[in-house]
Specification:
- The complex is a heterodimer of chains A (about 110) and B (about 110).
- Chain A contains no helices and eleven strands.
- By secondary structure, chain A is an all-beta fold.
- In chain A, the strands form two sheets. In chain A, strands 2, 4, 5, 6, 9, 10 and 11 form a seven-stranded mixed sheet that branches. In chain A, strands 1-3-8-7 form a four-stranded antiparallel sheet, with no helix packed on it.
- Chain B is mostly beta strands and about 110 residues long.
- Chain B is globular and about 45 Å long.
- Chain B starts with a strand and ends with a strand.
- Classes of the chains: A mainly beta (about 110), B mainly beta (about 110).
- The interface of A and B includes residues 35, 41, 100 and 102 of A.
Amino acid sequence: SAVISQKPSRDICQRGTSLTIQCQVDSQVTMMFWYRQQPGQSLTLIATANQGSEATYESGFVIDKFPISRPNLTFSTLTVSNMSPEDSSIYLCSVDLGPKDGAFFGQGTRLTVV
Amino acid sequence: GQNIDQPTEMTATEGAIVQINCTYQTSGFNGLFWYQQHAGEAPTFLSYNVLDGLEEKGRFSSFLSRSKGYSYLLLKELQMKDSASYLCAVRETGGFKTIFGAGTRLFVKA
């Protein structure tokens, strides 16, 4: 199993500002994943964060809007830049330990942009 | 393209059995997962299928048919605490990238 500490757990931000979300894992993992979950909807993958290389972004998500850092094998950050109310969502980081254990998620960051 | 379909909502009675279906069309397949997500919480892993057939784990079972692009999650002896969203997810080939369905919200009534 894995324990993921994600913070902040929630924030209310002004439009035009940026928020950085942090995830700390209690073990070394090659890949970390960042998801967004709109209210009542499922998880949408934003990007895959690999240590030592640039993140891989999914269609519809760009680095300028969602810059990601992965300085080591236990830590990653996701920044939501130049926020607008449409960015209001829950953001989750995740690690995948293989098929027998599946994915583990952080507690999520509930972001509200006003 | 990638598409995972599951019913939006289901309602069942405490003590009963419920089956949640999932159909998928993905560019590759390297396993199917089911996750449970209670409101306001992160998803938690329930089951994994990569070969055809049934996997049983306590009150929960999951079935896969790769040729049909079909899976179901079976919950037995339903309890009130089983009220949650159930997410079907497919891992693509070549890595750990996982695509999630929209989820099925299950309501268990007394």
